[in-house]
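Ticket #4471: structure output looks truncated?

Reporter: J.K.
Steps to reproduce: submitted the chain below (488 residues) through the standard prediction queue, then opened the result file.
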Amino acid sequence: MIGPRRIIMALAFPLALSGCVTGADYSRTEAGFISVANKTASVEAKETVWIQNQNQARSAGAQVKSLLARTKPLDVETAVQIALLNNKGLQAAYADLGDSAADAWQSTMFINPTVSFGTTGIGTPEFQAFKTIEGMITTNILALATKSRDVAIADTRFRQAQLTAAVRTLQVAADTRRAWIGAVAAWENVGQLQRAQATADAASELAAKLGETGAMTKGAQAREHVFVAEIAGETAKARLAARLAKEELTRLMGLWGSELDYQVPNSLAPLPKSVAKRDTIEAEALRNRIDLQVAKLELEATARSYGLTEATRYVTDLEILTGFETEREIDDDEKKTRTTAQVELEFAIPIFDTGKARMRKAEVAYMRAANLLAEKAVNVRSEARSAYEAYRSNYDIARHYRNNVVPLRAKVEEESLLTYNGMITNTFELLTDTRDKINSILLSVNAKRDFWLAEANLAPAIYGGGATNASAETEVAAASGSGGGGGH
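Returned output as attached by the reporter:
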């Protein structure tokens, strides 16, 4: 029979081992997040944290408040840094990384054996002529044989989870950058409309005075007044669009309460003197896109799973049973004890299920992963080309509005005002020229916004983490003629 001391030691050993491996799991999780942080820093040069306790939460909160306090108005780089520190959805993605680390740790653990005891006897409880004690320990030896493959699959999934968390981090950064550009451009539009409204108000007052003297007809006065009313309506729409754009930025940064009292600049930065040349952007994207690396790991994990399925095609459960049997007999007050060891092997006979269905599913899963990887590679190259084409074209468009359209419209209005003062042109012509100039300025602001959005989409096209379609630059608020000025 197995002595009590041996049983206690056998049961205590897994508990001690689990305590040691828990520390290993924590180290694996920390190493996984460090890998995510390093990948993020190499692209965005920003700090990201995984908040797992109250002290870390307080530290991150204090850092966010400090950034808000010392950066007024809020610039784009500070906004991205706040989002990486404070976005709660990002923290949830890091928790998924912890789950994957736990799964990888679990795969390294041995399968727990099953221990069973039982007794049978003949006779009364006070006197048993015959008594048998049986004990059995059962373990799955097939799981032991395939353990190395299980560990390899779990490790691949863990590396995949690290890259997925990195993609999510870059996505939050890219979304925040785009939201900041949209909010600032919206407020810049508001400022342009407010300046236009001031000019229209002055013209409306002049028209009213001229009408009192009989120098302007009622129809001409009505044109001036309706222009003022239309500008007021457009300004209100633009201010609403700007507030909503700022709220989108606020959500991405995870701000609430007193933290909402921040301001963004009144206008976007002017266009650069030239654009960056990215002749090898396709090769850069294929080399650096993290989501493409995730797809490669998916194919690797599927291939490993296929190999495991092939290895266990015919036998899915193979257990070895070891134990003992002790018999005690009482005959004429003489006790006889006999202990016998037992070893048994149990497995399912594949008469009906030969594993063909499981093999077919594994083959289909592998083909699916291979085709998705091929599709991802094609899309990555296309997205990189589209992002650079949008970047180059939007720069040319914005520069055209800045250098040609707006100056010409300003010249037309200036000449119209001179002829109006000389009583050569009428009020309606001057009104038309002023309206056209305002529209040209708003188009110029929006063209500049589209360029900066296209510039912000270059990094996601190369490294992953955001929408990189050429049409992404036009996905701003519905008020494309609205957005950006003071009081925000």
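Triage note (M.O.): checked the attachment and the full token line is present. The chain is about 70% helix and 10% strand.
Status: closed, working as intended.
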